[in-house]
Design a protein that fits this description.
Shape: globular
Number of helices: 6
Order of helices and strands: EEEEEEHEHEEEHHEEEEEHHEEE
Strand order of the largest sheet: 12-13-14-15-16-17-18
Amino acid sequence: MEIFALSEGSYSVDATKKFIPFNPETDNRKDRPGSLFIHVNPFLIKTANDLILLDAGLGYKDTRDELLLHQHIRNAGFDPEEVTLVLMSHLHYDHSGGLVVERNGKLEPSFPQATHVIQREEFEFGLSGKSSSYHIEIFEALQAGAKIDFVEGSGEYKPGINYELSGGHSKFHQVFWIDLEGKKVFFGGDELPEPEQLIRKFVAKYDYDGHKAAELRIQYGKKAAADGDVCLFYHARTIAIGIVTYKDEMFTVLPV
């Protein structure tokens, strides 16, 4: 099994829910008051049978009108059309924007050959238009041209790939464990988005259920430490792929 972090860089986001590229070397945080600053890392996993994408980033393009995500997949040594599975933790825009690409004024699925694994109620809520964190046009484009495998609750998707309805960051958020070819991987989406969230415990206002999300972070961290999982941190600035240890009630995260 090979694992690749497909970094899309850093962004600021304020109450308008717009994501604006942020370069820490040239931009000043003080110029963007009231903003959160995040890094975005979709992940690619190559196994003997699948090329798996874990969440899809913002869907921004480069100067050649190419999807950044597609170019990052090529840089990893693969073609975007080779992606067979897209595993989605949830559908907030910073995780789902790259599921579609604009071509000739129309949105099309970015991975038309892949099967998209999505919690059914998460998709239905996103399509309802009840939250500006979700972009309806993405889901309409997926309905029209993508292969979607809706799952419900928790279970085994296929041998070696398990999902759990976690419901902390969004009501129908899910996390994944991949246990294949002698390597175990945990992807917590926004339930465990950064290594730092294991080290400094807090309740976040941006979570659907902040207290539950805070408890889940610790629960997943302890499980990863006990099981020796490789953890994938979607919003990490430094350690996107790491190993967690837990000793004397303290977490440590080391890069892989």
